[in-house]
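FIELD: query
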Amino acid sequence: MVSLSLVILPLREAQGEFIAFLDSDDVWRPWKIELQLACMEKLPHIGMVWSDMEALGPDGAVTYPRYLRKMYSAYRRFPIEKLFTERYDVPTIPPLVDAELTRGAALYAGDIFSPMVTGNLVHTSTALLRRDRADRVNGFNEEFHVAGEDYDFHLRTCREGPVGFIDLATISYQTGMPDQLVRRSYWMAQGFLKTVTAALETDKERITLPPRMINEVLAEANAWIGETLISRDQPREASGYFRRSLYHKPWQSRAFVQLILCQLPPALAEACRGAYRWVRHPGASVFAAPLLGDQLLTGANALTLAAC
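FIELD: result
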């Protein structure tokens, strides 16, 4: 991940017709840009196109050939086939790309602003934007200088019109690196809730999500912040977020239990959490550091959203 300040200035100074990004832990395939330009030419009404990605382990071996849907859990609510309204064959651009590689691969397009409200669907290093779309979005929000800027940027990009998705891995993403997400998870959680809340306030009439789904997203966003505050030894502050989470979605056993534990003396509460971890993972230390949640099943997941 790179500092936001290292992205904002080049984005302002860029003069080209298209804009792409590359994080320090990602690697583009040699033909990525050419393929995306061909897709942009094929679909002139889309302002951004992104793609799937493969995941590499610490040793450089491929661990997941298609990692996007695993990393960004908002896809669990919206499968690709239901997310978009248009489907095309991916353009062929020999000799840069082997025809066998793109055979059967799909190019999707449509307005996905409402689904994006539930969580990020775009990995920044896979994206290519038209300059005019980037200008309308007005760049990254410097308020999210620690984490959360990517999701805010992509949500505003989708707000401005149709986008496209190439169902093919165009980059390699390095996983298993220390300090990739966990250290910044509190700020990611705060940024996620702030971004979603702002979208709901500004575009309430445009967002077509059912009320139940909106409440689920708000519940899980608040619970995510509560979990990160527990990991920071701030149970009093965490209890307020668990209460708000339960307000949006009352029947959550984990949030309810965490709220109760927040009322206990810290040593007793941590002993209870340690016992729970030991039951789930026999052999683990009862005094292990608190977990950052238990795989919250939304784009608000600290370990799978990566909306940094």
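FIELD: remark
The chain is about 45% helix and 15% strand.
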